[in-house]
Amino acid sequence: MRQSHTILTIQTPGAGLHDFTARVVDWCAGQDVTDGLLTLFCRHTSASLLIQENAAPAARRDVERYFARIAPESRDYEHDDEGADDMPAHLRTALTSVQLSVPIIGGSLALGTWQGIYLFEHRRRPHRREIVLHLIGE
Amino acid sequence: MRQSHTILTIQTPGAGLHDFTARVVDWCAGQDVTDGLLTLFCRHTSASLLIQENAAPAARRDVERYFARIAPESRDYEHDDEGADDMPAHLRTALTSVQLSVPIIGGSLALGTWQGIYLFEHRRRPHRREIVLHLIGE
Amino acid sequence: MRQSHTILTIQTPGAGLHDFTARVVDWCAGQDVTDGLLTLFCRHTSASLLIQENAAPAARRDVERYFARIAPESRDYEHDDEGADDMPAHLRTALTSVQLSVPIIGGSLALGTWQGIYLFEHRRRPHRREIVLHLIGE
């Protein structure tokens, strides 16, 4: 049994779902682990991780619009030092998650056919985000 | 230290919370691991995993009604190829989670007294769902 | 590779976000693990775990008010045996999470600069909560 880790840096162009499944798969492929557990951890409080439908762009746009609606920009937040999109970003992060673990079986991530791994950027402006990948297995 | 894995197939009768704690406990019991970490991973984007109250059926019905209310069926979604219950299913999955890890201590899952492990089916019709179980420990 | 575990008991004064990052860091420091994976598991259905902004108390108050608003106390729940704050507590737990895994790299939790680990108490009265910590690494 052994482990390895890395930090992926993702430059987001602005709010929305950004598919980075291929980068995760590529890194895992280089670790020579047949069976194990991959953990992804997003080091931010205004961006999160989400597994979503990887085929229909319309579904992702609906997800983005939904979170914009249930955790909207508003003048009613007490915390607004960093702009109107800051507090909704914390709320959307809380409603989703900053951590995700995916088993590896037979050399592949055990994702379902329609599952992609997305970074969900919640701020309007471009950001540089860090995702820690930790792999344990053999 | 060693690991093992399996895939549980669960036939859901339709939307709602389905308790499968017993199947998880049974599989773990056969792995001869005293201390470790169990990870459950749902390979779908329209069904999710949830730990919920295992004693009061009324509490589970309230949970089901709540998610039906905050992520309702609607004509306003752009993505509707697979029916009116498809996009709400993706949203309810995003609001809960497809992954869950539970420590194993002294041969037992470290669940609290009132915690059960549920598959939360979000589609109206019966579906065959796959849950990957990954166990590492000794 | 080896593992260790403990159970942290946290006495909550009532509803709200309670930072216990320091207790987690302290326990990990005593385990002599340089690289690994820490998993936190909350053994309750009316309290949850949340990583949130650790600098601005106003942001935490906004988070508390937000969850009180989207999963409010109400007479419309079927389950109300344990009081008006019970069913909203289950819903707020479902919207957040009872489990969280954080990689350990170079002897430190891989948290971002602004991330703190919070117990999110959803009941009004003080409660004694148990959080299982499981660490695997070397």
UniProtKB/TrEMBL annotation, chains A, B, C:
Pfam families registered for this protein in UniProt: YjbQ
Domain of life: Bacteria
Family assignment from sequence similarity: Belongs to the UPF0047 family.
PANTHER family: UNCHARACTERIZED PROTEIN YJBQ-RELATED (PTHR30615), UPF0047 PROTEIN C4A8.02C (PTHR30615:SF8)
Protein name, entry field: Secondary thiamine-phosphate synthase enzyme
